[in-house]
Each structure stands twice: as C-alpha cells, then as structure tokens.
Design brief:
This protein has about 375 residues and is of the alpha+beta class. The chain has a domain of about 120 residues: 2-Layer Sandwich (Beta Polymerase, domain 2). It is about 50% helix and about 10% strand. It is built from 19 helices and eleven strands. A seven-stranded mixed sheet has the order 3-4-5-2-1-8-9. A two-stranded antiparallel sheet has the order 6-7. Helix 12 packs across helix 14, helix 14 runs antiparallel to helix 15 and helix 14 crosses helix 16. The longest helix is centred in the C-terminal third of the chain and has 22 residues. The radius of gyration is 27 Å and the shape is elongated. The protein starts with 12 loop residues before the first strand and ends with a helix. This is tRNA nucleotidyltransferase (CCA-adding enzyme).
Amino acid sequence: MPGRRDDLLEGLEVYRVGGAVRDARLGWPVTDVDWVVVGATPETLARRGFKPVGRDFPVFLHPETHEEFALARTERKSGHGYTGFEVQASPEVTLEEDLVRRDLTINAMAETPEGELVDPYGGLADLEARVLRHVSPAFVEDPLRVLRTARFLARYAGLGFVIAEETRALMRELVASGELAHLVAERVWAETEKALGEPWPDVYFQVLHDCGALAVLMPELAADAAALDAALGRLPRLPEDIPAEEEPRWRWARLVEHLEGEAREALAERLKLPKAPRRLADQAALTRTLCAAARAGRLDGGRVMAWLDGIDAWRRVERVSPLVALVSMDDPGLAADLALAWRLAAQILPRGLVEEGYKGRVLGEELARRRRAVIDEVLAEG
C-alpha cells in the first residue's frame, strides 16, 4: 500500500501499522491509517509541525493528512484493568518491541511507506489461515482484549476466521483472574457498540458467553441460555430502512427486548448506557409484549393505546413506523392493522374536540375514548 512521497517524514523511520496493514491484505475496506515512528523523540515530531494528541503516551497528528503517528513504545503491567500499564516511549524502543505489545498477530504487522511488510510474529500466515491468535502470553494482562478478540471475530466470521484454541484458553484464564471486573462500564459499552455494528454481531456475544465473560459483564443476558440463543437468532434481523448509524442501538434493542423491565434496567445501569439505546430497548420490549398479546388472542384497543402511550407516539410520531416495521417481520397482518389503527387514531386531534366544547380533564378522556374506538374498529375488521 505504498503512498506518495511525504517530505515531513524524510529521515524518519516510520511504519504503517495495525488495521490498515491487516485490512489491505485481507481485501477489507481500510478506514484509518496509523503509523509508528521508531528512533525519534516528541521534540523531533513537534519541530516538523506534528500536533500532539496523546495523553498517556506520545501520539501526534500529521499536519496535512491528520493521520496518527505514535512513537514506538513498550508497556509493563502495573495495575488492574486496561489502563493499568506503565508506558515507555523512547528512541531506544524497536519496532519489534512495539509490535509485541499488540493483541493479535494479524494486528502486529507493519509495513514501510513503500509497502515492504515487517511481520515478526506470523501475522500474515494467520491472516491467510483465517486465525485470530494472540501475539504473546502478555495477552492476559489486558482484559479489554477479550472483548476486542470477540469483536474482531464478529467482523470476520463470515470470511471463515476462527479464534485459536490457545487464545480461547487465555481468554478463559483472563475471565477467571477477575480482571474483567476492572473494566469501566463505558469502555465495555464502547466495544459492544462497535461489535453491534459489525457484520456478524451475534458472534461477539456468543464468544463472550463461551469464555465466561458474558456472565461477568452482562449477567442478565447469560442467565438463560435458551433465551440468549433466541435473542442472538433475531439480532441480525432489523426493520428495513434503518440507517447504518442507528443499527447498533436497534440490534441492542433486539438483543434485550425479552428481558423483564428490572433486568433490562439493571443491565443498562451496569453498562451506563446512553439514553438512546435505553429508550429503544424499552420500546422494543413494549412492542414484543403487544405481539405476545396478539398471539394469545388478547389484543384490543386498550392494549394498542397503552403501547402508543408507552412509546410516546403522540409526541414522537417518528417512533411508530420503524416499530411497526419490526412487527411486520414476524406478523405482517398485525403490522398492517397497527399501521391503519395508528393512522386513524392520529387523525383525531385535541383541536377538534376543543371546538366541540371539551376542555380540561374531560377533553383528555374524550380524546382517548375516540382514539380507542377507531382502534377497536380496525382490530374488529382485521
């Protein structure tokens, strides 16, 4: 993946590293390009106009391309969690020493600006064999690597990738060590949200379940194996026309929609979820309950009204259509009835009742009565 001549890099020993090297050889889209600089100091890069951005170790942005250039560094375990490391970045650190601290061999390859591969840990062979394998026993020092390995498999599973058995063993060892408890909730969610955006998101949760990490990080999901299997089965299925940027929160909603309210809220609190995925999960759960009532022959206007009120449909009309589309994937007839009932009920507005002389509490009661009446009529004819 050779690039054009860059005068700012003249005289520096630089290597393209990580995902850009891996994905270019895999034929996967390359989205970010990162570099390692060997034998230099922060002052060297600053004099050339590079902008420092790293807080824990020296990372700089190229003033023109804005690509990241990190000084070669080593890490030594000094505490718990993924932040419990002492970092040394100095001109004495070699490229091989920098690469050995990485998680997987396919992420520990480098190449020169001219495209010459540097592969001290067999990353290319593992890439060709479709194997995710740890670089060194130091894999067990960083609990985040359990989640990252699962996420990479969620990305590449469809290409035939597997996790090496010895790496799975280290993942189980990491879980048993208790290190996962030191991961901050926000970082767990960040990795999970990325995984939910991968092509095979169900694989991520299956890997975590198999190594015991899911029981530690998301015990509500791990508690019932059969329910988890069913949730993973519906995870890839989303309503049509969901924008790509919204797919992770929709997949999260599909994953947890079967959980009881208290369990769903406890999981959201444990992961410190943002408001958007919390709300959508609650709406998906309400929709699931509505569908269950329909299957049991207990659907009436009151239940549909409760669903519309629960998703705040009267104020947030944009929520109705995608949830109806969710219903349509399993029950097109019910979805058609809900869409018609909603359209007719939404046409009954408070303004018209005010003109008839209704006001105050009586206005609200009459509005609800008329809306339910049209919904009942649609369900009776459906």
